Amino acid sequence: MQFSVSSRLSYEVRAQTVFVLNVEAAALRNQKILTEQLDLSPGVALDRYVLDGGTRLVRAVVEPGTFEVAYTATVELDMHDADPAQVAETPIAQMPLEVMPFLNPSRYCQSDMLGRFAQRQFGGLLPGHPRVTAICNWIYEQVDYQSGTSDSQTSAYDTMVQRAGVCRDFAHLGIAFCRALGIPARFASAYAWQLDPPDFHAVFECYLDGAWYIFDPTRKAAIQGLVRIGVGRDAADAAFATIHGDAQMTAMSVSIEPVAEDGAVPDTEPTVRAVGIA
Amino acid sequence: MQFSVSSRLSYEVRAQTVFVLNVEAAALRNQKILTEQLDLSPGVALDRYVLDGGTRLVRAVVEPGTFEVAYTATVELDMHDADPAQVAETPIAQMPLEVMPFLNPSRYCQSDMLGRFAQRQFGGLLPGHPRVTAICNWIYEQVDYQSGTSDSQTSAYDTMVQRAGVCRDFAHLGIAFCRALGIPARFASAYAWQLDPPDFHAVFECYLDGAWYIFDPTRKAAIQGLVRIGVGRDAADAAFATIHGDAQMTAMSVSIEPVAEDGAVPDTEPTVRAVGIA
Amino acid sequence: MQFSVSSRLSYEVRAQTVFVLNVEAAALRNQKILTEQLDLSPGVALDRYVLDGGTRLVRAVVEPGTFEVAYTATVELDMHDADPAQVAETPIAQMPLEVMPFLNPSRYCQSDMLGRFAQRQFGGLLPGHPRVTAICNWIYEQVDYQSGTSDSQTSAYDTMVQRAGVCRDFAHLGIAFCRALGIPARFASAYAWQLDPPDFHAVFECYLDGAWYIFDPTRKAAIQGLVRIGVGRDAADAAFATIHGDAQMTAMSVSIEPVAEDGAVPDTEPTVRAVGIA
Amino acid sequence: MQFSVSSRLSYEVRAQTVFVLNVEAAALRNQKILTEQLDLSPGVALDRYVLDGGTRLVRAVVEPGTFEVAYTATVELDMHDADPAQVAETPIAQMPLEVMPFLNPSRYCQSDMLGRFAQRQFGGLLPGHPRVTAICNWIYEQVDYQSGTSDSQTSAYDTMVQRAGVCRDFAHLGIAFCRALGIPARFASAYAWQLDPPDFHAVFECYLDGAWYIFDPTRKAAIQGLVRIGVGRDAADAAFATIHGDAQMTAMSVSIEPVAEDGAVPDTEPTVRAVGIA
């Protein structure tokens, strides 16, 4: 399934500023970038780097004035529908060792402190994809999705008590529960089809049965229409723009649409099927 | 129903030390102290004060050496059994204003942060004594009672995430939920009949229907055998001994037994009946 | 020295609402209320209560519509200038026992967690009023006064790390340090002369040498022009309005001016002198 | 300079257990492993993985009974002494992009919350190695090194308030300050020459002037005698043993000694020189 994505960021730069941008689709096995274009205006030299997990960073040094970032791409997602009941958890003994750091607690996902609750609530469930779905359902039912109830310092620990947040908080709580149960989990920012209003979205991925599977406890977007951008431990690793200097964002727009392939109308369904993305 | 209570504290005092002790039964309307004796050894002058809520403080300045505190009392608890279904919550509009500070958050009971969960979980229940019982049941079922899982800095916020603690943590969580729902709640330390092993216990009280009702979410003691000692906002107000100086506790024992009244064997039942203690 | 104070609060009430108001000058020994008037519009019956520390609560049940609260008073502050060097700390052994709860940690003042820093930074200073002034100076120098950096959940623990806040945060930090050093301390909301822009202010008081002394680490108001309103453990005890129901504040104004007494121009000085207010 | 290091861990395994061990010297450019041997007893198959930063993980599935891990190695540290005044900070604009994740906050290093203090305290200092040394000196002077004052949940946020901890807390605070100032910083566990009593140690490294420089704010070990083991975001990434199953450690010993090279007696000096370890 193909998607056309775009984002446009405008800044007023008041002093020389270093931007580290992360708006390009991530380099993932199941996410093929067919075409893409990144325009910086004014045009400036840029450095690029692809982090281990596939996150693509761009750095630009920008002089005072107006600065615009425009990104467009066509991305093919090669997601396969699996039968959730067949997607098992990978035993620690067989898990690729490079995946194991995603069991560690991180800034916003204090899995070390949520273990007792996670075990009590989800420990008795059948392991595998349905257990992570149960986690997502619990978050959806127990946490209010409400702007303004959390901020950039809010962590899973806080959300567990305060029971309100936005997509990144939902993702952090899901990640923390999974890690507490021995399931490697990572954060992903994304272009999210059908997210309304359009914005950068946050979801999470679990390593199950040899692949990373995607989950969205907010149920706000189509699970098979998530073009991942930044992939990392948690939101600390996936800011779309990090600004070192003095600049103010003046406008932002984000879009994603499916590319019609021989007239087929894609079918959408929130976080219920097992969607493998390895 | 009458109880014979006693406590004995032993200290090794290494430099002149000020002790503020709170081991005597509180001065409460429904808790009549029939006889009592406080012995300090060596005998030292002491100051006394009764706080607003009935907590009785004793201060002693003690020179280096061995210091022993021995307290014994016979206390009559005038508890009345009410039909829980008849014990309503007092509307804010009719609540005595002096009770309202017990709606405020305190050190260990951050009711301001637990409101959303409390409303979601308990807000739809019929107001009154059964709602507080539902809170106690939830705590009993969701939090592990386990020594060593919490310390003197652990608050209701932490217990809500970590789901383990001891009697004071159970009481703090109950208080926080009640305050969040508009029910005044306070902490009480107590001599607790049938607590095994014997120790100072912690419970909480709610202001309902014109009186303070007692609750013990731990279910570890007989609800009608609680002789209250310190009553306050939370555990910060109810330490049995505060030590300013240099002294080390070397031994402690606590006991409580019902006093046989014409051969009647008292009947015990954990936190299920409405026990009024106004 | 006399002050004329006033406040006016306007609300849009959408459903029957219980207001608990605390805008009247507190009943304190050194704060004589010469004249005062509280007007509620529409006029509604009200209940009154004076808390132990002198805080005066008013409760009103208000029907839907516009609701206005207007308070004016003339208050004489009987503050005496003491020589700070002569204002000692009261030893625990001699402190009135009713003052001792103000040594306990509270919601926003976790003195139990700040003890090591307080001892290290201020423990070696000469005890007494100058030590509390040193605490105020430290706060003034180390914490940025900046709106929007804190919220109603911010505590002294947070401010110690984040180093920014507003008047209530400054007061909470001062209280926490004092309690950690064995100095009873309490929070006070106040009409504050020369505060610019005019607003309700927050300061703190310490029990020293037999009286409560006032301190303002923000240096934003005249220390001798503080008409106290709510006095308590911390901001949790001193909200100017607590709303149970559905009402929205639409306007608020606060003022305080010295009343000319035989032409004398009062002299103002920020938090440097010892100002006793017992 | 060469060191002979060893560690021996003994466990009582009660049910099949997966061990993830990280006791081998890390694969770092300036740390050459001349000889090494890892013995597991009973001998079991093991998986190996080298994480991006050089951390070497070993996984073993162990059946019930006694389990022993013995590691010995000879390691040559190729540290060069630089003139600290010549070791500059790398501007964000020139920093390798792969280093930038070490600017992000992590579980135990909430650099996002410590920025104001870091700027205020260290922001005005001359950038470069001496600034990080100033950070280490501040930590050494302001935080008590004391066992039992912190636990596995203690973070830099807590240590900033509570001012006590052990080596990992010292490292976390140093890392948090550095990241807050725009200096990439990472955590390292180590065999530490002259640490008394011998144990695994924790230090941190900063990316300065094109290389990772090592710092030890505890001053408890010889800065040029640190054989790094686990390198990561913080202590969450550098446990010497992670146990999935049911096993109890029964004994542990750690040692490190310089290997005499032509009779030279190595000279030791705590955290003052710039020691480059790129």
Automatic annotation (TrEMBL), chains A, B, C, D:
<dbReference type="InterPro" id="IPR048930">
    <property type="entry name" value="Bact_transglu_N_2"/>
</dbReference>
<dbReference type="InterPro" id="IPR002931">
    <property type="entry name" value="Transglutaminase-like"/>
</dbReference>
<dbReference type="Pfam" id="PF21295">
    <property type="entry name" value="Bact_transglu_N_2"/>
</dbReference>
<dbReference type="InterPro" id="IPR038765">
    <property type="entry name" value="Papain-like_cys_pep_sf"/>
</dbReference>
<protein>
    <submittedName>
        <fullName>Transglutaminase family protein</fullName>
    </submittedName>
</protein>
<dbReference type="Pfam" id="PF01841">
    <property type="entry name" value="Transglut_core"/>
</dbReference>
<feature type="domain" description="Transglutaminase-like">
    <location>
        <begin position="159"/>
        <end position="219"/>
    </location>
</feature>
